[in-house]
Amino acid sequence: MTDTLDAFHRGRFHLLQPKNGGHRAGMDAMMLAALVADERPVRVADLGAGAGAAGLGVAARLPRAEVTLVERSPLMADYARRTLQLAENAFLADRVQVVEADVTLKGRARVAAGLPDDHFHHVIMNPPFNDGRDRRTPDALKAEAHAMTEALFEGWLRTAGAIMVPGGQLSLIARPESVGEILAACGRRFGGLELTAIHPRPGEDAIRLLVTAIKGSRARLKWRAPLVMHAQEGHAFTDFVDDLNNGRTAYPRR
């Protein structure tokens, strides 16, 4: 399997990832990272981190953040470790650790794996998003990264709720059609949901959904103004989306 070395945030940090197998990180990860807007010393868990793009995006932009990359695949966890050893990432490597564990572990097994209760101020996630009825890729590693299993959001959000401090923030990116499952999984764990649909161009249907929520909140759900990636013509990002994608600004909660 051939590796690639990819620059993010316009060269602020780099990511080592497989060229032809597994999930390759891109804009989704950077938009997810932008949801963490917190200048305090905070602990952040990136669940299902892959090679670590989203978590590293947070660490690169927020110098007081400590990030734990949680990844089940031994191969992708190894990519994350090797990424942290890159000279280009020396400025953030001492604030990032890799935990090789299944996100859905429960109780003592989860704690033993390195995910203690009531510990993280932020939990971010980019869960597998393909419905089982979608056309499956022949790449086994990519299929594992992309294929949604039954009750996936319930399992992931249960873990997020357990490892997060009261009042901590959940942030995730998903397909818009997953909104019902996300709301159901939040249940009484999380409230104050803020939802933002991402549209490719004006007049086109949404392709992604940004979600933030607060552990223990009872505030009402809020739909925010949509984000539009491109103008009507051309492929350049709009200025604000380009700033989010490149770590120049965050997307804070209202």
What does the model show?
The protein contains nine helices and eleven strands. It is α/β, with parallel strands linked by helices and 254 residues long. It has one domain: Vaccinia Virus protein VP39 (Rossmann fold, 3-Layer(aba) Sandwich). Helix 1 crosses helix 2 and helix 7 packs across helix 8. It starts with a strand and ends in a 9-residue tail after the last helix. It comes from Rhizobium straminoryzae.
Write a concise keyword list for the protein shown above.
single chain, 254 residues, Rossmann fold, 9 helices, tRNA_Adenine-N(6)_MTase
Short description:
With 254 residues, the protein is of the alpha/beta class.
Number of helices: 9
CATH fold descriptor? Rossmann fold
Low-confidence stretches: 131-135
Radius of gyration over alpha carbons?
Answer: 17 Å
Task: State which percent range the strand residues make up.
Answer: 25-35%
Q: What is the C-level CATH assignment?
A: Alpha Beta
User: Number of domains in the coordinates?
Assistant: 1
Instruction: Report the average pLDDT across residues.
Output: 92
Q: What would you say the CATH architecture is?
A: 3-Layer(aba) Sandwich
Choose one word for the global shape.
globular
- What is the straight-line distance between the termini? 43 Å
Helices and strands, in N-to-C order?
A: EEHEHEHHEHEHHEHEEEEH
Question: What is the topology?
Answer:
Elements: E1 3-8, E2 13-18, H1 27-33, E3 42-47, H2 53-61, E4 65-71, H3 74-84, H4 90-93, E5 96-100, H5 107-113, E6 120-125, H6 140-146, H7 152-163, E7 164-174, H8 179-186, E8 190-199, E9 208-215, E10 222-223, E11 227-228, H9 239-245
Parallel strand pairs: 3-4, 3-6, 4-5, 6-7, 8-10, 8-11
Antiparallel strand pairs: 1-2, 7-9, 8-9
Helix pairs in contact: 1-2, 7-8
